[in-house]
Amino acid sequence: MFSAIITSMENYKDILRYDERVILELRGLYEEFKYSQYRMSRFEEYELYAGNKAFMPSGDILTFTGISGRLMALRPDVTLSIVKNAKDDGELKKLYYNENVYRSDGAEFKEQMQVGLECIGMIDVDLAGEVLMLAKKSLEIISKHSRLGISHMGFLSG
Questions:
Q1: Is residue 108 within 8 Å of residue 60, measured between CB atoms?
Q2: Residue range 88-104, pLDDT digits in tens
Q3: Phi, psi torsion values for 72, nearest 5 degrees
């Protein structure tokens, strides 16, 4: 299927922007490996992010008061929302996403596309290898001049 998407994209390469072509190629790659697209709201309750600020790339979160009076946030991250909303039914979930996130660059808030995948459930060595292979292929789709670095804190503390 992935090759069929690439072939059909060739017919449209003159009208698709670079980012549109990349997203379509990544979607084809992830779906070939049985990942399902995860769609989400732009808004989450602020407490999800406030309780996980150490996980956030920057501590700045764009907030507003919702109609119900709850403090809401424009999502600065996708992973936390997926973990919060994915049903824990014991089944392995292989999900991918391409969603806009809203983050501060230190001077101003910016909207930027975040693309990735998440595996939730029992992860074995084969699945970990699959994720690393998909990371490498994803980087190659984005740029032929990419490099994948893999590290582990155990190497540094050992």
A1: no
A2: 788 999 999 999 888 88
A3: -115, 165
Other CB atoms within 10 A of residue 22 CB: 18
**Domains identified in the chain and CATH numbers:** 35-142 (3.30.930.10)
- Find out whether 117 and 93 touch, Cβ atoms under 8 Å: no
The predicted pLDDT at position 49 comes to 76
Is the pLDDT assigned to residue 56 strictly greater than 90?
Answer: no
pLDDT tens sequence across 112-137: 888 999 999 988 999 999 999 999 99
CA distance 136 to 146: 9
The label of the residue with tokens 């990419």 reads: 146
**How far, in Å, CA of 131 to CA of 127, rounded?**
6
